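User: Could you check the structure of this?
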Amino acid sequence: MTTKSKVALVTGASRGLGKNAALRLAERGTDVIITYNKQSTAADAVVEEIVKVGRRAFALQLNVEDAGSFGGFAERLSEGLAKWELVQIDYLVNNAGIDAVSMIPDTTEAAFDSLFNVHFKGVYFLTQRLLPLLAQNGGIVNLSTGLTRFSTPGYAAYASMKGAVEVLTRYLAKELGSRGINVNTVAPGIVETDFTKEAFDAHPGLNSFMSGITALGRVGQPQDIGGVIAFLCSDDARWINAQRIEVSGGMFL
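Assistant: Sure, the predicted structure tokens are below.
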């Protein structure tokens, strides 16, 4: 008997960690739906890479800062699934995010609200909206950051939103347990992506410093994170639930 392939939805997967997670999921035999905000060409390229490894894929536009758009997104997701003769996804990976660095005295209300809308409100209400489309015995992976454990000046607002996501993860795990859905958090350390390129370019010694305070002696790469996300979206991780898994190479030990 042929086993039905699993389907994962990865937000913000046109680049960086989301892209790598989508590709690693495909390599493990999972069909993948990715979202992008503005980079449609990059998203199409990721879809092509997934198809090349023999899995199905399509991309949908989604602005996670706009909770009012989630109903329409869910409808478009259902339409896409229907083309595969499906009605639900098995895994949801809440990865989409933005970066904003500012010391507490310099943080504007607008910047704070944007971080809140993307990293917490967006995760909360997108997950809420997609719960009817999430299959029994499925899973959710929320992305956090190592900055919720150690403190780096300039990231108070960003890390606070991610701390809220870590609490939300535990509550989701509790409330969705009756459906067999496990929910976990992946908290990366610093990773070299276009997300962090500005910081690395602005501070030439940053790479060496971060390598020095990391037990494994280097900064992270996207492939260090994507495989962990893909593992959590599998039956091998079935009994892992409500956990914060830091993937940082051992920063600030």
